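Final report, Chapter 2: Outcomes

The project's central promise was a pipeline that accepts a single protein chain and returns its three-dimensional structure in a standardized token representation, suitable for archiving and comparison. That pipeline is now operational. To close this chapter, we reproduce one record exactly as it appears in the project archive, with the input sequence first and the structure output second.
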Amino acid sequence: MSVPPGGSPPEDVTRGNWPSGTPRTTGVVPVLSRSAHDRDHLGRSLPDPTRGRPVRVLTVDGRRAVPVAEGPDGPALVWDEQPSLPVGAVYLGEADGVPYAAVRGERALTVNGRPVDAWSGLRELGTDLGDLDAGLLAEAIGILEWHERARFSPVSGAATTIERAGWVQRDPETGVELFPRTDPAVIMLVHDGGDRCVLGRQAVWPPGRFSVLAGFVEPGESAEGAVAREVAEEVGLTVTDVRYVSSQPWPFPQSLMLGFVARAVGDLELTLDPTEIEEARWWTRDELASGDGPAALPPPVSIARHLIDRWVDGEI
């Protein structure tokens, strides 16, 4: 099975030798797993989830870009201060007593009189945003993508109605409640029990770009089972000691990446599935740490890079 859509797209490539050419990941969790707000799931059922308070609203355009201002501590999202929750906005939760929401809209040079330095996306911003903005942006992109792709009920085909501040769509003909969809996908660093790991590349990626293996979890399959199956399908290895490391949302449009490490056993010769992998090879820790590895690795916004960095450091 192929890498999940958006799981490792060509535009995510950071060129140059690693680690000198690209920044390392930092922190104990993947970049997009950070969060500093309360999603306030009980508030979604209230007639006014903001409880009468002014709300900060983030505009997301049709290309998943949001308004950004550069500050002394780096980029920050530009929030529109509104007296109440706008029609069509999705309630995101609150932090420090301030409600937050997101809505689809068009780009502008200013937001409620505040200048916008740029419109940018989660892939570009995720590493540099603070915990609060990063968590709210990942949530906003994911829930708005669901609304874009689920306008009609899969049960009757009728146009759905929106309830619970944007977190439920209802089939008006059957009364069935429809909830946001998340597709689980596994992403795994496979090692030999020593100082080598497998990295591969797809033909659609720019030359020299390598990453860890990944794929969707199939119906009726455990995440660990998906790891073993995907590794066998893509590079012909048998793995054991499949161990969960961490997870990260990847809302492009609706994946949840479940990060694992696994140890290859038996014959360690790689047998590639040509429909999935153009090239794969074993790389040593020293090669990756010294910059003598692939010409390009995943950027720090991805859980793939988080897994690689932690393995190189001997943490997993």
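Archive annotation: Confidence is low (pLDDT under 50) at residues 1-21.
This record, like all others produced under the grant, will remain available to the consortium after the project formally closes.
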